[in-house]
Structures are given as C-alpha cells and as structure tokens.
Design brief:
With 309 residues, the chain is α/β, with parallel strands linked by helices. It has ten helices and six strands, in the order βαβαβαβαβαβααααα.
C-alpha cells in the first residue's frame, strides 16, 4: 500500500464489502494502521451512508481493495465518499467491470463517468486484472450477471481543493475599454515655427501689426440708418410689416405710429377733469357714465358693466 502515497498522519477510511474474509480484512487493516500511525477507520460499504460521518473527515478513502470482495459503488455511495473526503483528498477503489453493461455491472468507462458526475476529478484507471473466483461467484449471485467478460479495475480519483457549495468573489469588468488615442508625434520644426520667445519681440526682423491701423476713416463713420434697411423691407404689402428680429428701425417706427393713432382716437376733454368721474363732468362730456380713470388711459368696459347697462 505504500505505492499509493500514504504517509504517517493521514486519516484513512477503509471500505469493505461482502464476502470479504475477516482474516484478509484484519491483515489489510493492520498494515494500513501501521503505515499511517493508527489514523484508520474501517466501514462496510452498505453502512457508510447510515454512519453520518462528518464532512471532510478523511484524507484517503480505500474501497473494494480486498481480492475476494465484490463491491458495486452506487452513485449515492460515491457522493457520500466525496462528501467525507477533505479538499484535495484521494480515493482508490476497485470494482468488477464488464465489456458491455448488463444487470447493474458497468463498463470501466461508465464507472469513470459516474466518478466524475459525483464531483471527483483526476479520474484515472490504474490497472486491470482478472476477477477472483470468490468475487465472481458473489457478484453473479447478487446481480444475476451471466456473462464471461468480468474483470477487476482499479481507479484513482481526487476531490477538488474546495468544498461543495463554496463561493469566491470574482473580479469581472464588463465595461468596454475604449483605447486611448495615441498623440501624434510632434514635429520639432513645427514646434519651433509656432514658438515666440521674448527675444523675438526685440528682433528688428519681426514686423508687428498695429491694431489701430486695421481701421481707416470710413470704418469709423456712423452709418446712415436708411442704408441699414433691407431693399425689400416693408415692400410688396398693403400695410408695412416689420421683419422678425428687425434691426433697421422699421419695428420702432411702426410702434410709434400705432401709439399716435391710439392717442388720436381718444376723445378730447375740454375741462381736463373728465378722468375724475361723473361728478366732475359736464353735460356734454364724452366720458359721461364711464368710471374714473387715469389721465391718458383708455377707458374699457367689462362684460359685467355692459350687461348691467
């Protein structure tokens, strides 16, 4: 058993099945106990699920290694073995296999697939040898298998380095990374061309333009308002109409005309006290019967007063 990699201090679980002889089981248990320093437990495969071992209890699980045993490792049994193994623990088992699956006897490929589905990794077939007469007889009696292609295969597997259901935070970034545009290489001659130092200001070869010389006498004259009007402004219509956002002065001109027309349409008072009310108005006052108002204000009657009248 030393070739399996067992060492002192490893916690080992030895699983056996019928019809293993007590003498061979005791001999194997003593050998393993001396190898690992007494850290050994022995359990029957049919009782393992009922034993309720704690999770991650054993570094090694050895099952079906007795030559006269005929263990069939069900999916439930393998899941329980994976549960009680420590993360990174090892499993070595032997099981009878056949060339074509029949009566519950699996092929070697099927056995390795079931081990993987139980959560184990690094599943490897170690060796294959003929099945002993005792094991073959017990297997045929238990399963009813009638074929002649039985053999014994040894398979090793391992538990991942984490517990089932363990979680770990992943640092993921789904944001699209926009590559930064590379700056074009600076041409030294171009940089020198656009550089103006203090020494250049005193250079007689540098001609600086006077900003006052950019305007001549005609540019400083105030323009004639008539020249600012558009050629077609107010033309082609019966009534003058200023353009939207008028800047030529037509809008102000029309506004002054409108105010003058409104003022001319108002009745003229001879006494100058008509706005005070009927008590201060004469018999021929044009505002007779109207309410008092401010001087220059146009008098308007609302609907209520018209209805009362």
């Amino acid at each position: 058993m030393a070739d399996l990699g067992l060492k002192a201090g490893d916690r080992v679980l030895l699983l056996w099945s019928q019809p293993s002889s007590p003498e061979r089981l005791k001999e194997l248990a003593e050998t393993l106990g001396a190898l690992v320093g007494g850290q050994l437990s022995v359990e029957n495969t049919e009782r393992l699920v009922l034993s309720a071992h704690s999770a991650s209890s054993y570094d090694w699980v050895l099952s079906g290694l007795l030559p006269d045993g005929a263990a069939i490792h069900s999916s439930e049994l393998l899941e329980e073995i994976a549960r009680i193994m420590t993360p990174g623990g090892k499993l070595v088992l032997e099981e009878a296999v056949t060339g074509s699956e029949s009566n519950g006897v699996r092929t070697a490929e099927k056995l390795m697939s079931v081990l993987k589905l139980s959560g184990l990794i690094s599943v490897t077939e170690m060796k294959t040898e003929p099945l002993s007469t005792e094991a073959s007889t017990a297997l045929r009696s238990t399963t009813g298998f009638q074929g002649n292609t039985l053999s014994r295969v040894r398979v090793s597997a391992a538990k991942p380095n984490y517990e089932a259901g363990a979680s770990s935070q992943l640092k993921l970034s789904f944001a699209k990374k926009t590559p930064k545009p590379e700056k074009p290489a600076l041409d030294p001659s171009a940089a020198k061309l656009w550089t103006l130092s203090a020494n250049d200001m005193d250079d007689d070869d540098v001609d600086l333009i006077d900003s006052d010389a950019l305007l001549d006498a005609d540019d400083l004259k105030k323009p004639d308002p008539a020249s600012l009007k558009a050629p077609t402004c107010g033309e082609g219509a019966k009534k003058k109409k200023a353009c939207k956002n008028c800047t030529c002065g037509l809008a102000e001109e029309l506004e002054q005309e409108s105010k003058g027309a409104q003022k001319a349409s108002q009745p003229k008072s001879a006494c100058g006290s008509c706005y005070l009310g009927d008590a201060f108005r004469c018999a021929s006052c044009p505002y007779l019967g109207m309410p008092a108002f401010k001087p220059g204000e146009k008098v308007l009657l609302d609907n209520m007063q018209l209805t009362d009248a």
